[in-house]
């Protein structure tokens, strides 16, 4: 089984083969919109829900919410539907992977195409999230002027 690995500080998503070798590395962000119900995906390893193929949304495209290749959802407690997807490739504001989501990790259509092709040969088992603490997530958000202040955090 292959796996995904997301590094929130480096803003990279890796697809790893059965033997742990890197099949591909792409740009990815966990830039969460300030109106979302949580600030970022916590560090940890999560079970993939869509192991054999991404979940598709009818009519989506590279400029749509989820990109041309759908979403690969993973089990994230309290937040069903969180996953990895592309989309918003030509958005006038923060195009591509840097475009804010409601909590998902956004990458490129190129990445999703390669991951989808690999899933046909080797199912996905997990995604590991590292270096994605609140500080890293907040710095990515602040970079774009979308300041998110987690509940209970006092900036004074």
Automatic annotation (TrEMBL):
UniProtKB keywords: Cell shape, Cell wall biogenesis/degradation, Peptidoglycan synthesis, Transferase
A single MF term (Gene Ontology): carboxypeptidase activity
InterPro entries: LD_TPept_cat_dom, Transpep_catalytic_dom
Record keyword Cell wall biogenesis/degradation present: yes
Associated pathway: Cell wall biogenesis; peptidoglycan biosynthesis
An annotated GO BP: peptidoglycan biosynthetic process
Domain named L,D-TPase catalytic: residues: 34-120
Record SUPFAM superfamilies: L,D-transpeptidase catalytic domain-like
Keyword Thylakoid in annotation: no
Family stated for the protein in its record: Belongs to the YkuD family.
The name this protein goes by in its record: L,D-TPase catalytic domain-containing protein
Annotated organism of origin: Enterobacter huaxiensis
């Amino acid at each position: 089984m292959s796996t995904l690995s997301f590094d929130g500080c480096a803003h990279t998503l890796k697809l790893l083969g059965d033997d742990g070798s890197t099949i591909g590395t792409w740009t990815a962000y966990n830039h969460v919109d300030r109106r979302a119900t949580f600030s970022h995906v916590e560090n940890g390893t999560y079970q993939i829900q869509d192991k054999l193929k991404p979940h598709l949304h009818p009519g989506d495209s590279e400029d749509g919410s989820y990109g041309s290749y759908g979403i690969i959802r993973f089990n994230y407690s309290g937040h069903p539907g969180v996953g990895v997807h592309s989309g918003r490739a030509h958005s006038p504001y923060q195009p591509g992977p840097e475009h804010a989501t409601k909590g998902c990790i956004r990458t490129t259509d190129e990445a999703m195409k390669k991951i989808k092709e690999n899933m046909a040969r080797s199912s996905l088992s997990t995604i590991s999230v590292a270096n994605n603490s609140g500080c890293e997530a907040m710095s990515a958000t602040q970079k774009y002027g979308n300041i998110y202040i987690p509940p209970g955090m006092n900036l004074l």
